[in-house]
Amino acid sequence: MLPEIEIVRPEFAIGKSTEGAMQSGAFHGYRGLVREILSRIQEELGGAVKVIATGGYAALIADEFSEIESVEPQLTMQGLLRVARLNFPL
């Protein structure tokens, strides 16, 4: 069974333990996934797009990621609050 890991930026890409390898895969793999998706979107739209990273690990993934303009970890919750206030005014 694989251990639960903390998602962090690993010091090395090649893990020296199961935990290190899993952290590297989670961090570098996810950044690679994001980079590829952004590349495809830009290609389809014919140019640069505004990219906002959201979610709990947004700051970690966006660090030193030139394509990402800003980090808004609570953006989804802010949007839901806004919708709730429109539908249920106090």
Low-confidence stretches: none
Helix content estimate? 40-55%
Structural class: mainly alpha
List how many beta strands DSSP finds: 2
**Beta-strand content bin:** under 5%
Q: What string, H for helix and E for strand, traces the elements in order?
A: HEHEH
Number of domains: 2
Strand order, sheet with most strands: 1-2
Gyration radius from CA atoms, angstroms = 17 Å
Query: What is the helix tally?
Result: 3
Mean pLDDT: 93
Q: Concise description?
A:
The chain has helices spanning 18-45, 58-62, 75-87, and strands spanning 52-53, 70-71. It has 90 residues and is mainly α.
List keywords for this structure.
single chain, 90 residues, mainly alpha, 2 domains, two-stranded parallel sheet, 3 helices, 4% strand
Describe this structure in words.
- With 90 residues, the protein is mainly α.
- It has 2 domains: 1-49, no CATH class; 50-90, no CATH class.
- Helix content is 51%, strand content 4%.
- The protein has a two-stranded parallel sheet.
- Helix 2 links the parallel strand 1 and strand 2.
- The chain starts with 17 loop residues before the first helix and ends with a helix.
